[in-house]
Write a structure and sequence with these properties.
Structural class: mainly beta
CATH class: Mainly Beta
Number of helices: 2
Oligomer: single chain
Helix content: under 10%
Protein name: Trypsin-like peptidase domain-containing protein
Number of strands: 16
Distance between the termini: 43 Å
InterPro entries: Peptidase_S1_PA (IPR009003)
Shape: globular
Pfam family, one: Trypsin_2
Length: about 260
């Protein structure tokens, strides 16, 4: 059986009907016996690039021992013309994290997966300091073990003051080599005290590479820095609808794009 961390993360593909659009990363989060799939918001909708999928497929293992066996769970992104995912916003604007609830009956009964839970979130900012070693678990450019359907990891470090909103936004920086397809990947730090069979602390959700618009493409290398949204947003996004305030988050009322 693979390490639990590798079974907490899944490859997600976006579709417009039967037409494949993009590939990305995501992970499972369980709260109060409800299961959510978490990824970047721009994976499910991104108006600037005219990316408007109407469903996603999540690849799941169906055998904890024979990892060559897997299946794809299809999830519609719109129900009755309204978006099914949850996304949040704060004083800095929209947060690039989306969570969509997956009904248990939609999962195969033999699904081999591990879920992060609220107990995997940092209990104290003192647990993490600048330079702390992290892992980013995902599918860069779609690359992965295609036989066993497992992600790969990139080693990273915390590259900005953890707990401080970088430039007023709800994310911190990591220093790691990343690529397209890693969006939505969990950013984790190994802390055995995090508990159970998944001994990792979930610090953030990888969003995108950062760069300088003034960089000389001939003389200057890319910064190699990335944004990771603080994972505590998941406590808002996975709250029951009655306890979610519009000031903190919203279950989106995005209207399905035409066509």
């Amino acid at each position: 059986m693979a390490e639990s961390l590798l079974l907490s993360t899944a490859r997600v593909s976006t579709f417009d009907g039967d037409r494949l659009l993009t590939g990305a990363s995501g992970f499972f989060f369980e709260r109060d016996e409800r299961i959510f799939f978490v990824t970047s918001r721009h994976v499910v909708i991104d108006a600037p690039t005219k990316h408007f999928p109407n469903r996603i497929e999540i690849e799941l293992h169906t055998d904890a021992v024979d990892l060559t066996r897997s299946t794809a769970v299809s999830v519609w992104l719109y129900v009755d013309g309204k978006s099914a995912w949850r996304q949040g916003s704060d004083m800095g604007g929209e947060i690039d994290v989306a969570a969509i609830e997956i009904p248990r009956e939609a999962l195969p009964p033999n699904a081999a997966m591990f879920c992060f839970t609220p107990r995997h979130l940092p209990r104290s900012l003192d647990e993490v300091e600048v330079g702390s070693v992290l892992l980013i678990v995902g599918f860069p450019l779609g690359f992965h073990d295609v036989v066993h359907h497992l992600p790969v990891v990139r080693q990273a470090v915390v590259a900005s003051a953890f707990g401080v909103r970088f430039q007023g936004q709800g994310f911190f920086l990591t220093d790691a080599r990343t690529h397209r397809g890693t969006s939505g990947a969990p950013v984790v730090k190994r802390i055995p005290a995090a508990g159970g069979k998944l001994p990792w602390t979930l610090l953030g959700v990888h969003s995108a590479r950062m760069d300088m618009s003034t960089r000389d493409l001939q003389l200057d290398e890319s910064l190699g820095l990335n944004s990771a949204w603080y994972a505590d947003i998941l406590m808002t996004l996975t709250a029951t609808p009655a306890s979610v305030t519009t000031a903190q988050a919203q279950t989106q009322g995005q209207v399905a794009p035409p066509g």
